[in-house]
Amino acid sequence: MDRMLYTSMTGATQMLHAQAVTANNLANANTTGFKQDLTLMVSKPVDGENSSRHYGVATTMAQDFNKGSLITTNNSLDIAIEGEGWIAVVGQDGTTGYTRAGSLNVGGEGILRNREGQMVLGNEGPIAVPPDSRVEIANDGSINVFGTGAFSGDFSIIDRIMLVNPAHGEMAKGLDGLFRMKSGGEALPAAEVRVKSGVLEGSNVSAIEAMTEIIQSSRQYEMQVKMMKSADELATKSSALLRMN
Amino acid sequence: MFDSLWVAKTGMEAQDFRVQTIANNMANAASSGFKKDIAHFKSLGYNTVQGRTSMNEGGDYDIGTIKVGRGVAISDTSTDFTQGSLTITNSDTDVAISGKGFFVIEGDTASAKPEEQRFFSRNGHFELRHTGTDKTYNLVHTASQKKLMGLATQPTASTTTPPPSALEFTLSNDGNKLIIGSNGEIMEEANGAVVSLASPRWISIATFGANSGIQKNSFNLYTDNPASTGGARYAIPLVENLGSLTHKSLEASNVTTIDEMVNMIEAQRGYEMGAKVMEKADEMMSTLIQRT
User: Fold this and answer.
1) Domain enclosing residue B97, as ranges
2) How high is the mean pLDDT of chain A?
3) Domain coordinates of chain A in residue numbers?
4) Which of A57, B99, B101, B275 is deepest in the core (most CB within 10 A)?
5) For residue B69, what is the nearest residue in chain A, using CA coordinates?
6) Dist CA B235 CA B101 (whole Å)
7) Smallest Cβ distance to A108: which of B15, B64, B227?
């Protein structure tokens, strides 16, 4: 009986976790470039002699790489990747991470950053935009700068945003929400990746799917609690059997 | 425990903020020269609630690793500077910019910081004000009651020197009708003919490297933030690729009510879904309390 109680307890706990993952997906239903996390339930044998018993264990190993819908913003510093590919940025920990969120701006010190304040990488490190200039991003990620006094149409390409295109299987989401190579290395720049200026890629979270998952996980949770209650009743009954009078 | 409760809270807060932004856009749908704001969301990263925080040798997370996101937050709001449509008002002191550029409005001229000395606006609703000197007038930005700035020379390129100063012009006769040329020149109508002023003045137009860096202020004014914008540069209309002026017109707000309505529906439903998740988490807690 004790094992039944613990198996159900694990089930309930895992459902709580799974629901929190879905709640986070739902909360990010309007976050640019967000890729939803997928929860996988894995049956894991209990360590020890009772190998017939399995726990259900929730795992968030994978993300849904489907593309979000494109939203037109008409802001020249908003870019969306057409087809496959990623934008290389510098995470808070200083390592290179990859994202599809292309809402960029020129922050303080004239450095090109995304909305999270992470520096966007060019071919040679962060991209510094010269003062007194207007910036446009070409569809190969080149940064065209209309420089000082040259608003008439002369421009120079100062750098190209580092765009990479590793296979989905090689990428995993880190704790800061940026994707990184599973190998721990850095992805190679890919010349074939194309961006579109003036649009953003929306979140790929489907609200219907997420709401269904929320209902499902809460019902499953209730069932687990019911099993815990049954285990309790069974224990009461069996102790009654053992009573002498 | 019950992470989903807190995650749902972040989602609802963010949607609430977004509704505020939308409400402000909607409220300003009829404000001349108003540019709409867009709230941006960012995800808040993850906590590992179960299992190892790092990947294993194969570069995968172990089975049983659960990373739960911390939800969402508003990263910032940005302003959409697309052109609003022009509406004819027939007022002599209304003028609209079609194309790039901002009117320059006098700020705190005594300030040591150049960005505090001037404000910028797309709202071209002005009023004529007598300066006290005979037949001499200012144009005052009605919304903020601050003076419009201009130049006494006709620059051929946008520059930082000389910066514009408060526009002051002398008419040949009080009561002469004001005419503003598409290049910003102040003229007057005397005896049925449009004539230049004895000492010509031009309305100045400012341009920025990156409009995204300027900050919204009250009364349809913007403040420069030189670190992000590259600093304001001044010229008159039609210089380089700057816009032209249309006299007796105003630029309408670029808020499209239908877009805002769609955003509002999305935000409201997002909020409701967050509330539903909260409700579910609450139900689960009550199940736990009552059934055990």
Assistant:
1) 86-251
2) 86
3) 2-66+205-244, 70-201
4) B101
5) A24
6) 9
7) B227
Enumerate residues 84 to 103 of chain A having a beta carbon within 8 A of any beta carbon in chain B: 101, 103
What residues does B244 pair with on adjacent strands? B98
- Distance CA(A23)–CA(B69), nearest Å, equals 9
What digits encode the pLDDT tens for the residues B227-285?
777 778 888 998 878 889 999 999 999 999 998 999 999 999 999 999 999 998 888 88
pTM for this structure? 0.79
B108 and B150 part of one domain: yes
A-to-B residue pairs, Cβ atoms closer than 8 angstroms: 238
Paired with A55 in beta bridges are A44
B94 with B197, same domain? Answer: yes
Counting the structural domains of chain B, the total is 2
CA distance A91 to A164: 16
- Cβ–Cβ gap A133/B72 under 8 Å: no
How far apart are the CA of A238 and the nearest CA of chain B, in angstroms? 18
Quote the pLDDT of residue B56: 65
List CB contacts (< 8 A) between A229 and chain B.
291-292
* B241/B96 same-domain check: yes
Local confidence band at A150 (pLDDT 50, 70, 90 cut-offs):
very low
Same domain for B156 and B241:
yes
